[in-house]
Amino acid sequence: MAKAIYKMRKSDIRVSAPSINNSEMEFTPIEETSSILFGIAGIAGINAQITEQIINNRPYSSFKNFYEKNSFEGTLVTKSKMIQLIKAGCFDEFEPDRIKVMKQYVVLSTPKKEKVTTANLPEILRMKIQIPSTLISPYKFKKYVCQKKFFYGNHPNFKSKKLYWLDAKAEKYFRTKMQSSLEENKDYFFEEDMIVLVDKSIDSLFKEAFNNLKEYINTPEFLKRYNNALLKDTYNTLVPNKNVNHWSFEACSFYSHDNEFVDVDCYAYSITPFDEIPEEPVFIEKSRGNRTWRQYELYRIAGVVLDKNDNRHTLTILDVNDNVVNCKMNGEFYAFYRQQISIEDGDKTRVVDPSWFKRGQALIITGYRNSESDFRVKTYKNSIYQHQVQKITNITENGELEIQSYRYGYEPEDEQNG
């Protein structure tokens, strides 16, 4: 699809972002303007049934109108689908700023909280909403102490009470804020140089503080701050990448506006557009002592992943100049960067480094061009470029690249040690 779209662009035929009112299931040619409307069913995650629902509910007068018509029990336009439609630019005809549309969706789809409970406190703390320390400290202490790792055992005399031992951090708070108000051998015990605390004694001592905390988090002023923070947190969770050009590529596999590398100074990062590299490989002569040899002159290209072929160990990218490039690499290296890396985290397995070859992932790749659209991935021990593949973790608003050169767990020792 990407090859076809960018080939048409070179012939001055423009493919436009899908329109929620005018696009059909498939691509729709507009002869008067020599353009083609992207088909709604061509958006990633949007199938024919979803498209039929959208078309049957037309026309739409605004994004809010679309949301209201397609938000009902059993709707096929779920949250993930709504996000894809926004990223694709389906609502540009109402509001060309897709970030504004995304924020409008978050507001419409996030119910306003009229009341919160202590069950919301972990979320409140994660979102860093300020609460006076006199109110939150007792809660934090109990939450910290009553963890599974500090469980000492059941109370010998009361089945409903549990005992927890205190580490140095908890003991400091206990001696400063609690010990003088509690009774030894009833509320706490000394066991082999450890302090063991009864959980119910914590509740009794801090009962008033816990009640005051519940009242505080339900005041109008706090609820307003909580709801605002919730909207911001929901938005950041739904769209961690705020690059609107990336949204377009992620949803439709092409950029309806600018390539996301548009503001990047490629020269500063030694990146060469693929179409500016000689089509036939260039050799440079190297020598050491009496020995002379030739090796390929290496270049660095950058772009986003379009597709991959595991059998051929080939990665297809769209580079900074909208060239579709097939990158061929050694099978061992291909498998290394394709895999996702996970670690054991307690009873669960946690992904710490996803595959670098996911569609839409931005990469820097080193090697040489060897045909019209092929790039051979390669490095030499003595070359200035030491990494065959580097992952671009972020492109800032100023066009600066944040780059990850090593996979998790494979960093040199000096980097691992900070």
Q: Which features would summarize this protein structure in a list?
A:
alpha+beta, 418 residues, five-stranded mixed barrel, DNA polymerase, domain 1, 22% strand, flat
Secondary structure elements and pairings:
Elements (H helix, E strand, L loop, with lengths): L1 H9 L3 E3 L11 E3 L4 E3 L10 H9 L6 H8 L8 H10 L9 H12 L11 H6 L6 H13 L5 E4 L7 E4 L2 H10 L10 E4 L2 E5 H7 L1 H10 L3 H19 L5 H9 L30 E6 L2 E6 L2 E11 L4 E6 L4 E5 L2 H8 L2 E5 L2 E6 L8 E8 L4 E4 L11 E7 L5 E4 L8 H4 L2
Parallel strand pairs: 1-3, 12-16
Antiparallel strand pairs: 2-3, 4-5, 5-7, 6-7, 8-9, 10-11, 10-15, 11-12, 13-14, 15-16, 15-17, 17-18
Helix pairs in contact: 4-5, 4-12, 7-10, 9-10
Any overview of this molecule?
The chain is 32% helix and 22% strand. It has 418 residues and is an alpha+beta fold. It folds into three domains: 123 residues, DNA polymerase, domain 1; 85 residues, no CATH class; 151 residues, Nucleic acid-binding proteins (OB fold (Dihydrolipoamide Acetyltransferase, E2P), Beta Barrel), CATH 2.40.50. The protein is flat and about 85 Å long. The protein starts with a helix and ends with a helix.
DSSP strand count: 18
CATH topology-level name of the largest domain: OB fold (Dihydrolipoamide Acetyltransferase, E2P)
Mean pLDDT: 92
Number of helices: 14
Fraction of helical residues: 25-40%
Q: In CATH, what is the homologous superfamily of the largest domain?
A: Nucleic acid-binding proteins
| Spatial gap, N to C terminus | 43 Å
Overall radius of gyration: 29 Å
- What characterizes the major β-sheet? 5 strands, mixed, barrel
Report the structural category: alpha+beta
Low-pLDDT parts are none
Strand content: 15-25%
**Backbone shape:** flat
Q: How many domains make up the 3D coordinates?
A: 3
What is the correct CATH architecture of the largest domain? Beta Barrel
CATH class of the largest domain: Mainly Beta
Q: What oligomeric state best describes the polypeptide chains here? A: single chain
